[in-house]
Amino acid sequence: MLIKNATLITAAETFQADLLIRGEKIAAIGQNLPPTPEDLILDATGKFLLPGGVDPHCHFDLPMFGTVSSDDHYTGHKAAAFGGTTTVIDFVVQEPQGLRHSVELWLQKSAKAAIDYSFHMNLTHFDDSVAAELPALVEMGITTLKVFTAYNGRLRLSDGEIFHALKIAKDLGLLVMAHCENGDVIEPLIAEALAAGHTQPEWHAQTRPAWGAIETTLRLAAMAAQANAPVYIVHMNAGGEADMLRYARQRGAPVMGETCPQYLFFNVEHLKRADGAKWICSPPMRSEADNARLWQALQTGEIQTIGTDHCPFFFDGTQPIIYEGQPIAIPGKELGAGNFTKIPNGLPGVQDRLPILWTYGVRAGKISANQFVALTSTNPAKIFGLYPRKGTLAPGADADIVIWDPQKQVTHGVAHSQQRTDYNLYEGWELTGYPEKVFLRGNLIVDNEQWLGQAGDGQFLKRGKGEVL
Ligand code: URP
Ligand code: ZN
Ligand code: ZN
After folding, report:
1. Ligand 1: which residue has its CA nearest to atom 2?
2. Which of 134, 155, 323, 389 could staple 151 via S-S, CB 3.0–4.6 A?
3. How far, rounded to the nearest angstrom, does the alpha carbon of residue 143 sit from its chain's CA centroid?
4. Is 78 in the pocket of ligand 1 (CB under 6 A)?
5. Whether the Cβ atoms of residue 94 and residue 123 lie closer than 8 Å to each other
6. How far is the CA of 424 from the centre of ligand 1 (A)?
7. CATH number of the domain bearing residue 155
């Protein structure tokens, strides 16, 4: 296929060119490329061509809170594709039987993948036998570990364990990702809140203060510096975390950061609404000042990526929705009616990320179109060892291409969403600019409102060592 007359947008530049796809790859980019008689020609005058989005932070089919995140490795991938994302990375739950066993279970779950995908490994228990399995993880193409400084007694590692893991990670070329909150402060605050009868959703945020995220971000950055091993701070939510990241990066610490759209657009006031449970995720949303500081960190390059932390639940999982013609209901936020600690933590966003950021980031003048591509595709591909196969428009790269219609008007919301849940955080938001066509390795998988992809078409991506940006 020869795509003619488009405006290509990469992380570095914006330019007019033709783009030739041969099989699964981009074969050439240039002016007036000559078609062969077999080439299909697509005139993309007035459209933008972007590399497919790379979402480095998703949770598909994740059991938690006595239920499961409501998008699996097919429905979540399909939703991602409609929003212009063609690569996703989700997190393997660490099982007691070992890392290899844990990965094999996750590979079975993801046999229905519809776009390309990889895994991070959650490291929620660490001892010598786990350490001995880390080289096998690298052989399997999983070069990232996630550690937690909260969820005491469940997911959390001690600082000593994290430092030990960092030292080994450095030797193996692994990147450690850190969920930064302080579990030792959160647990007593939750107990106090419940004892005082504070059961509403806003108390989820009140019991997980920004201070914990801020000091933990600095603590992990300091560990990165002292182990001389890179750390990537996931889902940055507090402006103070951006301050700590800047402090550490200015002093040469190998630390990088990710934020998510929800931390740019929402704040604790949303949790006070009658339907506040929709906004519950961990870490929680903060204040408008935090939103502003995070935008600034994106503008200045202090934060390197925007992921989604897509971990959807139904708002009312007793009422079925129709998904691909079938009714489906999955227990969700209603599990925590009357007790905020029982509300499943997480929210939808894998489809929303690019369209929302385009209208309310690029069109609003907060970030350039090139920064948009860098933050949502190129930088995640580089950091997570997928570049230049993914994350750019260049000869030899996978032909993961979004034809973006900058004029398309959409009233966003659940009616327009493929995310398998009954609500959308951006309900009623007016968008200008939306993916028109999405190609995965040269195959057209989304054509306007039409789904042409298939379960099983997504490929597992074995990743190598990534870059420290
Ligand atoms: O609330 C959230 N974010 N759930 C997903 C798990 C995590 O910590 O990223
Ligand atoms: Zn997390
Ligand atoms: Zn997450």
Report:
1. 346
2. 155
3. 17
4. no
5. yes
6. 17
7. 3.20.20.140
Protein residue whose Cα sits closest to atom 7 of ligand 1: 282
**Mean pLDDT score across all residues of the chain:** 98
Ligand 3 centroid vs 182 CA: distance in angstroms? 16
Q: Domain containing 78: what range?
A: 51-383
Q: Are 65 and 335 in contact (CB under 8 A)?
A: yes
* 29 close to 395: Cβ distance less than 8 angstroms: yes
Residue nearest to atom 5 of ligand 1 (CA): 346
In a domain, 393, yes or no: no
Are 124 and 95 contacting, i.e. CB atoms less than 8 angstroms apart? no
pTM over 0.85: yes
Give the HSE-up count for residue 275: Cα atoms under 13 Å, Cβ half-sphere.
Answer: 11
Q: Is residue 8 in some structural domain?
A: no
| Residue 86: inside a domain | yes
Give pLDDT tens digits for 185-236. Answer: 999 999 999 999 999 999 999 999 999 999 999 999 999 999 999 999 999 9
Tell me if 8 sits within 8 A of 377, measured CB to CB.
no
State the closest ligand 1 atom to the C-alpha of 179, by its place in the atom list counted from 1.
8
- Per the structure, the count of domains in the chain is 1
Contact 284, 309 (CB under 8 A): no
- Measure 234 CA to ligand 2 centroid, in angstroms: 7
